[in-house]
Design brief:
The complex is a heterodimer of chains A (278) and B (79).
Chain A lengths: L2 H6 L11 H4 L19 H4 L7 H9 L2 H18 L2 E3 L2 H8 L5 E4 L2 H7 L9 E4 L4 H5 L9 E3 L1 H14 L2 E6 L5 E7 L5 H9 L4 E2 L3 E5 L19 E4 L4 E4 L9 H5 L5 E5 L11
Parallel strand pairs in A: 1-7
Antiparallel strand pairs in A: 1-5, 2-3, 2-4, 3-6, 5-6, 8-11, 9-10
Helix pairs in contact in A: 6-9
Chain B lengths: L3 E4 L1 H4 L2 H4 L1 H5 L5 E5 L14 E5 L10 H5 L5 E4 L2
Antiparallel strand pairs in B: 1-4, 2-3
The chains are: A alpha+beta (278), B alpha+beta (79).
């Protein structure tokens, strides 16, 4: 169980299976953002849905470890209060579809920012819960509009996006209220990107870890293309996939691709060294 | 080394519809931002989007973005 389960699971298996965490009204915390201007444009204000700004990048670039650590802790504290995510397996995401209402299919702000994706191609984000009624009242306020889905439709969409290679995550909008069910990839998703590039925990690892069965792995390497977290390597000397379990976020994209069924997801809690690696 | 990426929004004249620099960058450095901040009813206007450097740490200085821009709106310098 992760820190969030400790605090918010309240008897349920995971905090994201506790209906109470979807039941309240979500609210958007609007920062008074500085308008970006001139040469010193701040990525945070400017877009890219950045979790860290130019000051952080400069400290990182300069190798100022103390400053980086200080800013990282600040960024994490802010994110954990308002807006951060955790990785889910496909099965967990499908299970959540049966719990939440309404479910809205929306355009992804991260992909719009980082790839200027046209709205028609960008419906990969899902909003969940009573906060979605806001879009019904003001449909124009969310770019591209909102499509309400039945639970079965939502499961179909998520399964398709998982097959395509996107990672399912849940996101809080005012912790602990979960309102986002995202389909992420590196480098355009701000949560994955910030976490992988800088170790700022905007995205928490999931409750599982992937494991390769050496007897079943044939070395086809199809799984390698699936990992968005830089945890999967192919070892030519062994002719086998190698998973760095300390890096693995437990999304299961590799497992769902393996035709041999050689990759399985094991409970993070069952591995003493990984039980608290989030 | 971090670059200084300057975008002349007047010269750019429509980041969302053009998007050439965003797409040409091999390391996805550039991103679209909103020039008016997060405000109700204003998020829908595509003309409000501007290009800015986001992943400054990944900029190699290749200048593909500078070359591809039809309006000479973007400058990249490492000085």
């Amino acid at each position: 169980m992760c820190d969030w389960c400790d605090k918010y699971a309240d008897g349920y298996e995971r905090w994201y299976f506790n209906p109470a965490n979807y039941a309240r009204r979500i609210y958007k915390i609007r920062r008074e953002e500085v308008e970006s201007a001139g040469a010193e444009a701040n990525p945070q204000a400017a877009g890219g849905m950045s979790v860290v700004g130019r000051e952080f990048l400069e400290a990182w670039d300069a190798g100022d470890q103390d400053k980086v650590r200080e800013m990282k802790e600040k960024a994490e504290a802010a994110a954990w209060l308002t807006h951060f995510g955790q990785v889910l397996t496909l099965d967990e995401a499908l299970r959540i579809c049966d719990m939440i209402y309404p479910i809205g299919l929306m355009t992804c702000a991260c992909r719009r920012s980082m790839r200027a994706l046209p709205d028609e191609e960008n419906f990969v984000c899902m909003g969940m819960g009573p906060g979605m009624y806001k879009w019904e009242r003001w449909p124009d306020t969310y770019r591209g509009g909102m499509h309400y889905l039945t639970p079965d439709e939502a499961k179909e969409v998520i399964t398709k996006l998982n097959k395509k290679g996107l990672v399912q995550t849940v996101a809080t909008f005012g912790t602990p209220y979960l309102a986002g069910l995202c389909n992420c990839d590196y480098p355009d998703c701000a949560f994955i990107r910030t976490t992988i590039d800088f170790g700022v925990k905007a995205l928490w690892k999931g409750h599982y870890v992937a494991k390769v069965d050496p007897d079943l792995c044939t070395g086809c390497a199809r799984c390698v293309a699936r990992c968005q977290f830089k945890a999967l390597n192919f070892s030519p000397s062994n002719n086998m996939a190698y998973i760095d379990q300390f890096q693995c976020f437990g999304c299961g994209l590799c497992a769902t691709e393996c035709d041999q069924g050689a990759i399985s997801l094991v409970e993070r809690a069952s591995l003493p060294a990984l039980a608290n690696v989030w | 080394m971090l670059p200084t990426i300057t975008v002349d929004d007047e010269k750019c004249g429509g980041a969302y519809l053009c998007r050439r620099c965003v797409l040409v960058c091999p390391t996805h450095v550039l991103g679209l931002g909103t020039s008016v901040g997060v405000r109700k009813y204003r998020e829908v206007d595509p003309e409000r989007f501007v290009v800015r450097g986001v992943r400054l740490d990944k900029c190699t200085g290749c200048k593909d973005c500078v070359e591809v821009c039809p309006n000479d709106a973007i400058q990249v310098s490492f000085s």
